[in-house]
Design a protein that fits this description.
Length: 122
């Protein structure tokens, strides 16, 4: 009986995207608005579905923060933030500096954020 050898795995080059390209994919209809994806370090990453516990926790944080922040900041729930040229995550809750936004918030705008991980902690 002849032994079979498995060829070594070859790392294939990956195509990374910029935030601008990511937006073009959405505008072209390649990424659908309801599709739960975010751009992390150039990779388009599928987000986990929102379960009941996750939703309830995010709602509870939002409710408490709205009362605490009042007019000093903006509570942003599950909205994108442009961290860099190749990362645009959608944190569950972010408290942003109060200003009129005509572009996505950037790190300097974020006072703090919360990411709820009930099933995807790893």
């Amino acid at each position: 009986m002849a032994a079979t050898m498995t060829p070594p795995a070859v790392a294939l080059p990956r195509r990374r995207f910029t935030v601008e390209e990511f937006h073009h994919l959405a505008e072209a209809g390649i990424l659908v608005e309801d599709e739960r994806v975010e751009l992390i370090e150039g990779d388009i990453v599928k987000m986990a579905a929102i379960g009941i516990r996750h939703m309830a926790t995010v709602n509870a944080f939002g409710e408490v923060l709205y009362g605490l922040v009042q007019r000093e900041g903006i509570v942003s729930v599950q909205n994108p933030i442009q961290l860099s040229n190749d990362s645009e995550p959608q944190p569950d809750v972010a408290v942003l500096r109060r200003r009129h936004y005509t572009v996505l918030p950037v790190p300097e705008d974020v006072l703090f954020l919360i990411e709820v991980a009930d099933s995807t902690l790893d």
